[in-house]
């Protein structure tokens, strides 16, 4: 018998049949997995690139941010389709088509990617604790071990309640940045112009590199694996073609809407950087933003300790919430590739301890210098960039397999477009690495 992906939540949420209930009832029943995935598009790595892009180039890179989310929507839709149609996640689908040595190599590579994802959460949480409470970074890092208790507490509620908690967290973070941007009174016309492509992006070397960084760092392996499993959390009749088609439709609506929310949050960060910090030098770290928000010499009469505190609070929320998704994604990878199943609390502790070892070693080497410590986020993006092609190329290939996907197989033009997008993302990541 085929093992279920994330057995604890697989098929745990009942949804209306295709023949009953109104559109909005169905939409609400299917909504939720997209929120868990959207958190991955709002991690500290995205915060740094968005804020830095705004502080250096104003609103010009909004079009780059918009383009990266569009590409993400395409890739997440393939992940959804794989999970809904085949009732397998991406790790299971790949493992069933390669030999054992290849499975082990892919497992190790993706484990590194999961740890890199976890690293951004650890660094973001530790920095937030330092900014909010003055807690030394080393103690903030060690304190993140306790977030396993937060994850376990959330998981006891069931996947539906977790989805609501994460959605509420996204709304809180979005509201905080919306308030901060509104206080800054940005030029609406200039923001609109930022969504129009500018040739200077291609001719300015530094601006091009930052643009490549935004696109290359947006899509991460754990989100692809995660969505292919979360799409199976709904209890639908997989033998009813109409039900499968409807599940795909609403799951994609859920994904698109929450990715739009992720776009809004990242755009607010970029606008915040462009409005308050443009012409005030590059923002090298998250702490630069924190101190800058309450520094009259930089933001003038808009300086506010409350706004800087809310910024750090939002960073703390995203750091904690990302623990849930990295735990689930790590479980998917381990079960799918090497068929080892651990209780989620053990999986969480294992990932966190392995992640903390290099963080603490590097931290002591650099004497936990705050600016250098945040650069660990950049190194994490390097690992994710290396792992990404080994996730996206198989995803496109598998969803283009007619024998597996049947009538939901990628159309030839879709396959060509997706391969081109994956090649583009891979090329951008390589260019950024170089």
From TrEMBL:
Keyword check for Repressor: no
Membrane among keywords: yes
Keyword line: Membrane, Transmembrane, Transmembrane helix, Transport
InterPro entries, per database record: NRAMP_fam
Chief localization: membrane
Membrane topology: Multi-pass membrane protein
Cellular localisation: Membrane
Entry GO MF terms: cadmium ion transmembrane transporter activity; manganese ion transmembrane transporter activity
GO biological process assignments: iron ion transmembrane transport
GO cellular component: plasma membrane
Transmembrane residue ranges: 21-41, 61-84, 104-127, 133-155, 167-196, 208-226, 256-278, 309-329, 349-366, 378-400, 412-433
Record-linked NCBIfam families: nramp, Nramp_1, PRK00701.1
Name of the protein described by the UniProt record: Manganese transport protein MntH
Protein species of origin: Limosilactobacillus panis DSM 6035
């Amino acid at each position: 018998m085929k093992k279920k992906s994330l057995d604890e939540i697989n098929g745990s949420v009942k949804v209306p049949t295709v023949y009953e209930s109104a559109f909005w009832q169905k939409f609400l029943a299917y909504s939720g997995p997209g929120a868990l995935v959207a958190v991955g598009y709002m991690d500290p790595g995205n915060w740094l690139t968005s804020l830095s892009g705004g502080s250096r180039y104003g609103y010009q890179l909004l079009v780059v941010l918009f383009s990266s989310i569009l590409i993400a929507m395409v890739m997440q839709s393939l992940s959804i389709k794989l999970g809904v149609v085949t009732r397998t996640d991406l790790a299971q689908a790949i493992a069933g088509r390669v030999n054992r040595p290849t499975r082990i190599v892919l497992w190790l590579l993706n484990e590194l990617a999961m740890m890199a994802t976890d690293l951004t959460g650890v660094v973001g949480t530790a920095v937030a604790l330092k900014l909010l409470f003055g807690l030394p970074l080393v103690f903030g890092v060690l304190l993140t071990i306790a977030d396993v208790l937060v994850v376990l507490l959330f998981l006891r509620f069931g996947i539906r309640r977790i989805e609501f908690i994460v959605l509420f967290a996204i709304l809180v973070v979005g509201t905080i940045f919306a308030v901060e941007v509104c206080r800054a009174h940005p030029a609406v016309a200039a923001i609109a112009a930022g969504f129009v492509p500018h040739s200077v992006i291609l001719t300015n070397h530094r601006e091009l590199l930052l643009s490549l960084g935004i696109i290359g760092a947006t899509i991460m392996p754990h989100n692809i694996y995660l969505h292919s499993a979360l799409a199976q959390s709904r209890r639908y009749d997989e033998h009813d073609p109409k039900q499968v088609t409807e599940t795909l439709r609403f799951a994609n609506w859920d994904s698109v809407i929450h990715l739009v929310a992720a776009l809004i949050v990242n755009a607010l960060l970029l606008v915040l950087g462009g409005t308050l910090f443009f012409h005030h030098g590059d923002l090298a770290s998250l702490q630069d933003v924190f101190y800058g928000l309450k520094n009259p010499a930089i933001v003038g009469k808009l300086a506010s300790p409350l706004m800087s505190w809310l910024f750090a609070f939002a960073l703390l929320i995203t750091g904690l919430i990302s623990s849930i998704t990295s735990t689930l994604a790590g479980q998917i990878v381990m079960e799918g590739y090497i068929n080892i199943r651990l209780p989620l609390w053990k999986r969480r502790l294992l990932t966190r301890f392995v992640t903390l070892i290099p963080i603490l070693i590097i931290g002591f080497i650099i004497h936990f210098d705050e600016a250098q410590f945040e650069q660990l986020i950049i190194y994490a993006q390097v690992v994710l960039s290396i792992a990404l092609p080994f996730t996206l190329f198989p995803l496109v290939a598998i969803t283009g397999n007619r024998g597996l996907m049947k009538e939901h197989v990628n159309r030839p033009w879709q396959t060509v477009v997706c391969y081109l997008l994956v090649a583009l993302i891979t090329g951008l990541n390589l260019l950024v690495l170089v």
